[in-house]
Specification:
InterPro entries: Cyt_P450, Cyt_P450_E_grp-I, Cyt_P450_sf, Cytochrome_P450_monoxygenase. By secondary structure, the protein is mainly alpha-helical. The protein contains twelve helices and nine strands. 46% of the residues lie in helices and 11% in strands. The strands form four sheets. A three-stranded antiparallel β-sheet has the order 5-8-9, with no helix packed on it.
């Protein structure tokens, strides 16, 4: 409704913008319009086809495509970079993971599927540990305490108070063990069923909860697994500057640059 106010509408993102969210909205709008004009194929070739086939109208489809284009892009990229960094700078982890991946190569498809990544337990442990040790989001993602206030762990919180989660602190909770500052994927494999349940319940808060829970959890985890496998099944990877591997800035989410690695493929070809 606020976009109906002319003076406000001028400062809001627009599909006609040349950069920012508005430019992404423009791409989404063109994509949806083109798909509708072409006609929806009989078989779903994309998520957009599925949405349109199941009754999602054009304007809502534009919103969904916009979210799909920019939501989670930087956070997933950061998660992949951080996971690779912690793997390639930890010789024991690197050896165990590459052994698992490369010994499974003969049974994997040419491009690994999500189901196949799930069959690699140490890979899954690395993904969980990578997200724990370097969560891509530090913003509190605040919520407002509802009318009447609430009491948490014996502490009364008045209504109207903004509260949020400190993810770096939360993911170093004692539930993960005494060595929470160490990247150690084995903790996920060594935990008893009871411990693992407690660890999972804390860890999943990274993706928020309730009506604002991240919609792309499965997609992000799938991408992390597929990228790590496809890289490490083909190449050995070494950080060029392991002591200062990248330049990183945080704006509620982390953004990195200058992350240089040296790669050697299994046939001995070198690249950088």
């Amino acid at each position: 409704m606020i976009s109906c106010i002319p003076i406000v509408r001028r400062v809001l993102p627009s599909p006609q913008d040349r950069d920012g969210i508005g430019a992404i909205m423009g791409v989404a709008q063109k994509t949806v319009n083109a798909r509708i004009a072409q006609g929806i194929p009989k078989h779903n070739e994309t998520m957009l086809d599925s949405w349109l086939r199941n009754g999602v109208d054009g304007s809502l489809a534009v919103s969904e495509v916009t979210i799909a284009l920019f939501a989670g892009s930087d956070t997933t990229a950061t998660s992949i970079r951080a996971l690779l960094l912690h793997i390639i700078t930890n010789p024991l982890v690197y050896k165990r993971l590459t052994d698992e991946i490369r010994h499974s190569t003969t049974t994997l498809t040419s491009i690994i599927t999500e189901r196949e990544t799930k069959s690699l337990p140490y890979l899954q442990a690395c993904i969980l540990e990578g997200l724990r040790i370097f969560p891509p989001i530090t913003a509190l993602r605040e919520r407002v305490v509802p009318s009447g206030g609430d009491t948490l762990n014996g502490v009364y919180i008045p209504e109207g108070t903004n509260i949020g989660l400190n993810l770096p602190g939360l993911l170093r909770n004692e539930v993960f063990g005494p060595d929470v500052d160490v990247f150690r994927p084995e903790r996920w494999l060594e935990a008893t069923p009871e411990q693992r349940q407690r660890m999972d319940r804390v860890h999943e808060l990274m993706f928020n909860w309730g009506s604002t829970r991240c919609l792309g959890i499965r997609l992000a985890v799938m991408m992390m697994g597929k990228v790590v496998v496809e890289v490490l099944r083909r190449w050995d990877v070494v950080a060029v500057r392991p002591q200062r591997p990248w330049r990183s800035r945080c704006h509620g989410i982390f953004l990195q640059r200058d992350f240089e690695v040296r790669i050697v493929d299994v046939e001995g070809l070198v690249g950088r």
